């Protein structure tokens, strides 16, 4: 996709994308659907699957926060604390590190009061709280839960392979910003994971259905005020969506002219400003009508601080249909 200024192409963001049907078959692509890349936080539904399997009665808001890249609002922190308490854990047990809250209002309030952020404010604290509870419920040690060799992380890697329809050897490992393993896999495999959320089947169907329900019922907890996951999911019936760092995005669609679909795309330069534009372009290409509310998430014109129109955005998404 292209950002223009004064009629001149100023910036270009290259996109690779894969679309699979409910059976996991590739039906459309842009660029390289076999590109091996890190879904980053788009993996959180998979990372929460051991929790969903071990805690079938877990309230949906707590399951949603385990899948979240949250903004650090009071609602987010309350849900994380409830999840921590279930495993007998405290904020001190979180190994995600600390950063200021994503929500500007909360971040400003911390500065005003002189408070320092804690690991609770980290956008991944819900995922980590869920991992601690997974450990307790599965009889695994909480100590070292972020390490690659820990039983929980070994299981999560296996689930990426199973749900992605690839061999375990095809799932490569790195370390994420919150210190847990980050797993890389082909775009088509990542799309299959989201297709599995759109139409759950097999031995994990019930747990995947609960994850889908939790994320779509509590979109605010999945991200936060003004963020793409939170704003987009309520606008598209049957859509589950999860952003990942460095401009990755995954979507599962239950209602399309082609039936349930899974979509995964990666913007190669990590240009996250392009994510909403690409997401809307692929939804439209798949037969989802764009409402004015959806179009407002990705304006086609660019304005400067004085409100003057200075450029535009041109989305070029040449889908190749299988």
UniProtKB/TrEMBL annotation:
<dbReference type="Pfam" id="PF06089">
    <property type="entry name" value="Asparaginase_II"/>
</dbReference>
<protein>
    <recommendedName>
        <fullName>Asparaginase</fullName>
    </recommendedName>
</protein>
<dbReference type="InterPro" id="IPR010349">
    <property type="entry name" value="Asparaginase_II"/>
</dbReference>
């Amino acid at each position: 996709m292209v950002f223009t200024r004064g009629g001149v192409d100023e910036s270009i963001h290259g996109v690779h994308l894969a679309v699979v049907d409910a059976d996991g078959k590739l039906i459309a692509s842009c660029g390289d659907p076999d590109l091996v890349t890190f879904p980053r936080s788009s993996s959180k539904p998979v990372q929460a699957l051991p929790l969903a399997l071990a805690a079938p009665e877990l309230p949906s808001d707590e399951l949603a926060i385990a899948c979240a890249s949250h903004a650090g609002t009071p609602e987010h922190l309350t849900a994380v604390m409830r999840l921590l308490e279930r495993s007998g854990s405290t904020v001190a047990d979180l190994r995600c590190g600390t950063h200021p809250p994503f929500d500007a209002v909360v971040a400003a309030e911390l500065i005003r009061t002189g408070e320092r952020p804690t690991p609770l404010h980290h956008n991944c604290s819900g995922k980590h709280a869920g991992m601690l509870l997974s450990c307790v419920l599965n009889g695994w040690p909480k100590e070292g839960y972020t390490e690659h060799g820990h039983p929980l992380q070994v299981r999560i890697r296996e689930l990426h392979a199973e749900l992605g329809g690839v061999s375990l050897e095809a799932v490569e490992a790195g370390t994420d910003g919150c210190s847990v393993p980050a797993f890389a896999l082909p775009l088509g495999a990542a799309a299959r994971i989201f297709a599995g959320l759109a139409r759950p089947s097999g031995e994990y169907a019930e747990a995947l259905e609960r994850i889908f329900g939790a994320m779509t019922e509590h979109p605010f907890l999945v991200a936060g005020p003004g963020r793409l996951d939170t704003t987009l999911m309520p606008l598209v019936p049957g859509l589950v969506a999860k952003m990942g760092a460095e401009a990755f995005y995954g979507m599962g669609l239950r209602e399309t002219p082609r039936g349930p679909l899974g979509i995964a795309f990666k913007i190669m330069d990590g240009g996250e400003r392009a994510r909403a534009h690409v997401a809307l372009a692929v939804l439209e290409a798949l037969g989802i009508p764009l409402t004015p509310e959806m179009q407002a998430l990705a304006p086609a014109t660019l304005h400067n601080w004085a409100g003057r129109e200075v450029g535009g955005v041109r989305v070029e998404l040449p889908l190749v249909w299988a």
